[in-house]
Amino acid sequence: MSKINIKKINDFFTYRNDFLHIEDVSIMDISKTIKTPFYVYSTSSLKKRYIDLSYSLKKIRHSLYFSVKSNSNLAVLRVLSLLGSGMDVVSAGEYLRAKKVGVCGDKIVFSGVGKTYDEIKIALANGIRQFNVESIPEITLINKIAVELGTIAPISIRVNPDVDAQTHEKIMTGKSENKFGIPINSTLGIYEKASKLSNIKVVGIDVHIGSQITDLTPFETAFIKIAKLVGQIREKGHSIDRVDIGGGLGISYSSSKRDPISTDNFAIMLTKIFKDMNVEIQIEPGRFISGNSGLLITSVVYLKEGQNKNFLIIDAGMNDLVRPAMYDAEHEFLTIKDNLNDNNKILVDIVGPICESSDVFLKNKKLPKLASGDYLAIYSAGAYGAVMSSEYNSRPLIPELLVHENLVSVVRSRPKIEDVIKRDQIPYWLR
Ligand code: LLP
Asked: What is the mean pLDDT of residues 270-283?
């Protein structure tokens, strides 16, 4: 048997004899049967990211709640729930997804600034570990619903520590001007008030300062403030057993670079701050687990060679992956065949087909000269990709696939355009 030439991109994405593989499956082979664009995720990668993080935290009393908003596909959630992961949800829809894959209520935390009556009721009636609450009216409403249901609602108070997470402005949440959390200097008072409500049990403190954080310092600054607050709460005679530190661990958007923060260093920092506090540390990682576990596979529609610029027009658009348009994110593009026309590279802007000038993935990218029908893979597309997609320009949502070793399954199929259109109704008075 001839030897396979393997070039590693990360643990589960490799070039084998020059063709890109996800686990043991060739992307080229999948693309021949499933029309692009589509998302594809690696089961082993999801598992490894979860296990690596848990392993780094092994000496800390902790529990993990996968942030469903980063990737809410049931198959992805199932992979993680089978590993014992809890779930962090922000809507009734996400809550029901978590339940659907077998996560029990006691392992679901409910975050978000605008939980509605119906959402709180669904969670309270079906079981919840804690609501991470963000305002007094929310606490009052939760208490009221708990009275109606004759139950006790566990809550954790989300603190806004006024810390700059040093990330993109649109994904920072821990500054005082952000809508999230309760200002740290009013937390103690609110903790006391909430503890007096008949059907509320305050179980902890919660903080989440932002997403795609690439440096330990902002985490450390926020957590030191939180640890001090826990001390103050205890001094007032309250018991507090849980500190939920949110998500936010950044990833590398370049296949040649490692994670910006090592999970071992993250664990060392946590131990230093919380070691004598006897609290359970709850973590809500999203992107860290799902981000580099998925690719968005697309193909070239046209290469439009211009006088000043060349545009590589691909069949994925900002409706399929909005991060570049929304957060100026730069996702790496991988060719499906390595070393393709290596001597014939040209400078292109990689753009989608949507009628918006912001539908641009990368500018001035040197790529082998590609032609209509050639495939490309967009790296780091497992988090905030499919979940943020839309049907803008009446483009149906694209499929999601999950690979496990040599198995491939479609885990969300592409709706027929007729079915998408059928959802609208022309009122009788316009017929
Ligand atoms: N916990 C809470 C309360 C959150 O709001 C979030 C994310 C997480 C956990 C998970 O954060 P992660 O570990 O994934 O960083 N769409 C943006 C990211 C928005 C994040 C919102 N909250 C993006 O594509 O970059």
From this structure: 96
In whole angstroms, give the CA distance from residue 383 to residue 49. 13
Global pTM? Answer: 0.97
Residue 13 lies in a domain: yes
Judgement on whether residues 119 and 193 belong to the same structural domain of the protein = yes
What ligand 1 atom has the least distance to the C-alpha of 290? Answer: 14
Q: Does residue 48 form part of some domain?
A: no
Task: Identify whether residues 141 and 36 lie together within a single domain.
Answer: no
Containing domain of residue 369, as a range? Answer: 6-42+292-421
What's residue 21's pLDDT? 98
Active-site residue among 4, 33, 237, 355? 355
Beta partners for residue 303, in sequence order = 312
| Nearest one of 191, 277, 190, 282 to 231, comparing CA atoms | 277
**Pocket (CB within 6 angstroms of ligand 1):** 67, 69-70, 88, 111, 171, 208, 211-212, 246-249, 284-288, 323, 327, 383-384
76 in a domain, yes or no? no
CA of residue 209 to ligand 1 center, whole Å: 9
Region 92-98 average pLDDT: 98
Query: Quick check: 133 pLDDT over 70?
Result: yes
Amino acid (one-letter) located at 42: S
Please report whether residue 173 resides in a domain: yes
In terms of domains, do 147 and 204 share one?
yes
For 364-383, write each residue's pLDDT tens digit: 999 999 999 999 999 999 99
pLDDT tens digits along 244-261: 999 999 999 999 999 999
Nearest alpha-carbon partner for 294 in 201, 401, 213: 401
Q: Tell me what pLDDT residue 1 has.
A: 58
Residues 267 and 323 both lie in one domain: no
Among 217, 137, 131, 140, smallest CA distance to 174 is for 217
Q: Are 105 and 126 in contact (CB under 8 A)?
A: yes
355 is catalytic: yes
Pocket residue to mutate for ligand 1, from 69, 243, 253, most atoms within 8 A of Cβ: 69
Based on the fold, state whether residues 277 and 140 are members of the same structural domain: yes
